Amino acid sequence: MASLSTPLLGGAIHERGVVKLIMQDEEFNYLSQLAFRESGIVINESKRDMLYGRVMKRIRSLKLNGFTAYCQLLQDSYTGELSAFINAITTNLTAFFREEYHFNFLQKVALAHFKHHNQDKRLRLWSAGCSTGQEPYSIAMSVQGQLPDWDVKILATDLDSDVLWCAHQGHYDDLTGIPQHYRTQYCANECHQHGYLIGDDIKQVIAFKQLNLLSRWPMKGQFDVIFCRNVLIYFDNETKQKLIQRFYAQLKPGGYLFLGHSESLQSLNTKFRLVGQTIYQR
Ligand SMILES: C[S@@+](CC[C@H](N)C(=O)[O-])C[C@H]1O[C@@H](n2cnc3c(N)ncnc32)[C@H](O)[C@@H]1O
């Protein structure tokens, strides 16, 4: 764990009668370096307010008196605060069928390719950075019913343990984005409380696991499809380059990589071929 070279000067100012805690530069540097080392997420000066707001929530819920105390807590590894800190700094925005053209491509082009090439009738997909689960559930709904008698499995991973718990529950208040025919087919189990549960026939093809993309990947086999959308944008070029090489190795020849709408491989050194809108093929 990164260490603080000098004792931190915690502090607070009074603003119109309200006490506002101050995050000193040294504390900002410590927290942003820790975030980078543990998750690859780059928090530069332009994201200082974002970091402040998210760490403040931790400080309030732990009833600490400032950033100095919070940094000190992070240094005491036995407290387990590191994982709560990482959960706090991840951005988990997602939606069902986000970037719908990816799911159209998956159904119309990619599945046609695999029907032709996968003689073993086996399909392996990975949603890397799956957040609260809307992405892997959208993938599962797109594939389910298209490949009768096939062995289809989806691995859905994220670094953030809180979002993974939500994903695993498959309980949503809002089904916006899910086409009506899928809602009727796969989300009809309205809960006794509020919201909807994703049906077991969809849930059973997905395995949710915690995985830091920066660490060793335990998966032995290669994938036919990898979705890693809206994750690389948080990383620097060096991390992106390494990850893209690892995704290439983890995909079968002919396999597809789906990136987010603002992510491209243009500035990176890669053998991937562009075959659609932010869709690449090995
Ligand atoms: C903006 S969400 C994208 C969710 C989904 N892929 C989508 O496009 O809708 C980014 C996700 O990446 C995860 N993430 C960030 N850094 C990660 C890392 N080093 N390893 C694994 N997941 C990470 C975050 O926890 C977050 O849930």
Automatic annotation (TrEMBL):
Methylation of the membrane-bound methyl-accepting chemotaxis proteins (MCP) to form gamma-glutamyl methyl ester residues in MCP. This is Chemotaxis protein methyltransferase. InterPro entries: Bact_Chemotaxis_MeTrfase (IPR050903), Chemotaxis_MeTrfase_CheR (IPR026024), CheR_C (IPR022642), CheR_MeTrfase (IPR000780), CheR_N (IPR022641), CheR_N_sf (IPR036804), SAM-dependent_MTases_sf (IPR029063). Pfam families: CheR, CheR_N. The keyword S-adenosyl-L-methionine applies. Residues 16-282 form the CheR-type methyltransferase domain. Keywords: Methyltransferase, S-adenosyl-L-methionine, Transferase. S-adenosyl-L-methionine binds at N92, T94, R98, E135, D158, N212, L213, R229, N230. SUPFAM superfamilies: Chemotaxis receptor methyltransferase CheR, N-terminal domain, S-adenosyl-L-methionine-dependent methyltransferases. It comes from Moritella marina ATCC 15381. One of its GO terms (molecular function) is protein-glutamate O-methyltransferase activity. It catalyses: L-glutamyl-[protein] + S-adenosyl-L-methionine = [protein]-L-glutamate 5-O-methyl ester + S-adenosyl-L-homocysteine. Its EC number is 2.1.1.80.
